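Memo to structure team: turn this sequence into structure tokens by end of day. - J.P.
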Amino acid sequence: MAEETHNSLDGRADVVVQAGRIGELHQHWHGPTPSGPPVPYQLPPAPVHFENRLVEQERVARAAEAHGDGPGPLVVALTGIGGIGKTALGFQLARTLGERFPDGVLYVDLDDLRRDGTVEVSEAVADLLTGLGVTPDWWERTFAGRSQQYWTRTRDKRLIVVIDNARYGAEVLPLLPSSAGSLAIVSSQGALYDLDGVAAVDVPVDPLAADDALRLLGRLVDDPRLTAEPAAAAELARCCAGLPAALHVAGRWVRKHRRRTLPRLVAELTTELHEKGIPMVEAVWDAAHAGLGADAARLYVLLPQHPAPCVTAHDAAALLGTDLPAAEDALEELETAGLLDGRPGGLRLHELLRGHAERRARDADPEGTVRDAGRERLIRWYRRQAARADLLAAGPRLTFAAPGPPVPGVPDLEFTDKPAALGWLESRRLALFGCVRLAFDSGRYEDAWALCEPLWTYFLDHPHHADVTDAFRIGVAAADRAEHLPAQVRMRCQLARPLWEQKQYERAAEQVERALRAAESLGGTQQERKLRASAVEFRGLLKSARGDWTGAAADFTAARDAHAAIPNAYGVLLQTHLLGRTALNRGAADEAVVLLARAHRMAREQQRERMTARTGFELGRALRAAGRPAEAVALVRAALDGARERGSTSDEVRVLEELACLEEVLGNATEAAEHRAAARVLAERSGGLIEPDGEP
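Reply from structure team:
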């Protein structure tokens, strides 16, 4: 496997769906364990309307009993057409077998991470690591590193991992837990022929038998007409072709029209079938759509324009161009009609229903005017909210795109504080990344690169490398198409960092050099001069990543001089800090002390709280290296307090290791051992990889 995070696997653009209404997905914690995070339980509440599948459940139970402890985890592959109930069966299996696997249940939907038919496997691993209690600041930067974290975290565990909407075995294999005592439940439309080297049990999932379908319909709809008119009820169930996804919609359609006789409802569906020549399932959905109010019907045909799996009320308001109450009412009506499923983060449109909505949209809006307007509003709204969240989270910084005006009729989000802003960026990351591509594909090039600017701050704390690399590549292309010179420089610098963090140094160097060449044509405004200096800084950062300390120092010096000439006090502070770190890395401890002491003083004078902590910690390291450990203790202890206040366990571990080194130099072996042990325990609990010598 290549040593990089962006390791997409080619796949076909098949339609893959969730089967049936599974309700909202919850993550339940069953209390803390002595040695790590709480036990994950990422399953939705059990539905009251799950029907049959007893043969499949018994087969899997026997396989789990016979598997024992090896070799490798047991893999159960559920295969069947879209809407057949694979997801619901997978959840049911995880619930019924849960007692055999006391270390929890994890869930990942590969369709959430699929871009143009390919899965970002590293992001799937990151999602699983999050379920295991590993926060983003502890994720390894490379796919290989994340895989090692996942294997370490699942070793000797008895886990269930539910992997939904797979298309190839090659995208499943990296997600299997390392322990032989675990179970992986994989759903896919077709057989996974390349699922090599694992103990797999293939379980075909067929349409429900007529009696089972009728019973499920009866559970979905408590309606006396079903028993009073059994022939019509049976015909309605038959119309749904044994697909739970269709039965859910049909059941709610029946419940909505309580005054109509059941034979009349079935006759209406049959008329649709004969007059339009469409499948009966399509007729069921057409009937549900025809019964919607104006806003709900318009939202339904606009939802395929939304680029993320889940839609929120604010998303719906942007698509419709309405206020929040109207959007909430429309969403509620769609959910009541069975056309949307509840999920964490919002409501989801089944892929089968997405196709139906697209067909109805083409019928109602053949020129695409309404869809274009909804898509434009959504892109503009996300651009504005992302810029507002970034401003609150990072404060004023060098940007070249305005947030954009409010979208008429659509409310802005209300961010209460920095954590709320960062939390929104994380919760809507799939929509944000999707809007970058949507904007580019729609020819809205300024919106595409403008959306990438606020994603920079988010990326620094949440290394979703595959997503951000794809987004920044689009940002570069969009800036080129827009012929916006500052954006061309900024986007290439932003793209370079995730590339070099994935050890793609040559590709990163190409982007930095092209940014520098473009920067030569920038004008003389203060912003443009800052950007030119920033491009030089990025070249220095790339050289640092490659261990070229002398070259990095030359670039940081040039950037510092450029910032001093503007003048830009923060730029001078940042470059002085980078020069101090570089001097320390190349072994010039005394020079590093001078530079970092200067940077620390500037940070305090400028009241830059985070930079004060960073420069203080680096100054403490330099003082120890210069043989002045006693002077370093207070600085490093202050850095420890800061890390704990921020809740950054990765920084806390790093500072504890430095404190251990200081205590050793000062002859305090007991204190050093205590700090090192505390760092090791914290790193293990947080999911960090532990080196043989005990240092994370």
